[in-house]
Write a structure and sequence with these properties.
The protein is mainly α. It has a single domain, classed as MetI-like fold. It has twelve helices and no strands. The protein starts with 9 loop residues before the first helix and ends with a helix. This is D-methionine transport system permease protein MetI. It is a multi-pass membrane protein.
């Protein structure tokens, strides 16, 4: 169910395309001057980058599917809000706080039985999406709740006075008005996921984290470690740039 884009291999495909040209051999020779780099390692680096981006996208999607409704309920069930319910709010807050308190590296190991039952294995990028989605969903929920708290109460009261239902208030007032903050929150979430995925490499999740540990740290090859670090920084900068651009377009002037 997680494999929406099974052929997501943009960088690996790009490297295979470039390998047809004469300058590729010169590039490989140049890279070979650094300890641990050869043509095979270049393709491993491309594959690991593809896996990392894939996991960021998929776990961000599933984490939002879980976290968005929880965040909306956390806000709407608060005292004085449109679905005021102390019991529901307390239960949701309690569960959310529990999962937010668990360090991600421990969460991965803790839910291995669930991941194995759900996916069939706990190793690989598909299996990693399960703990990644569960680990990031409480963060998304709290960020959504905080984003909705910034919506002026006057707008909600005005919608109520015109007879809007709770569902209409959520979709026509709360979410549109808080959209820039939500987008900014999701940007932070995706950046956080990039760090989670690097940690997930320690337990065989694949991606750049596993490459850095397996070949850079365990193989005593600093060049590989440094390259992975640079790639991760570039990914974070791209996510932040895209997020900032969307925030500017969705901000009301």
């Amino acid at each position: 169910m997680f494999d929406f884009i099974p052929s997501f291999k943009p960088f690996e495909a790009l490297f295979r395309y470039l390998a047809q040209y004469n300058f590729w051999n010169d590039f490989v020779v140049f890279c070979s001057s650094f300890n641990g780099f050869n043509e095979a390692m270049l393709f491993k680096m491309a594959q690991a980058t593809d896996e990392t981006i894939y996991m960021v996208i998929m776990s961000g999607f599933w984490g939002s599917i879980i976290g968005l409704p929880i965040g909306i309920l956390l806000y709407t069930t608060r005292k004085g809000q449109i679905l005021d319910c102390y019991v529901a709010n307390s239960v949701l807050s309690f569960i959310t706080n529990i999962f937010r308190s668990i360090p991600f590296i421990i969460l991965i190991v803790w839910i291995i039985p669930f991941t194995t039952f759900f996916i069939g294995t706990f190793i690989g990028k598909q299996a990693a999406i399960v703990p990644l989605s569960i680990g990031v969903s409480p963060l998304i929920a709290r960020m959504i709740e905080n984003a909705l708290l910034e919506v002026p109460k006057g707008l909600i009261e005005a919608a109520r006075s015109m007879g809007a239902t709770p569902l209409q208030i959520i979709y026509k007032v709360l979410l549109p008005e808080s959209l820039p903050v939500i987008v900014n929150s999701m940007t932070i979430t995706l950046i956080t996921l990039t760090g989670y995925i690097a940690m997930a490499g320690a337990v065989g999740a694949g991606g750049l984290g596993q490459l850095a540990i397996q070949y850079g740290y365990n193989g005593y090859k600093p060049a590989i470690m440094n390259t992975v670090l640079i790639i991760l920084i570039i990914i974070v900068f791209i996510i932040q740039f895209i997020g900032n651009s969307i925030v500017k377009r969705t901000t009301h002037h």
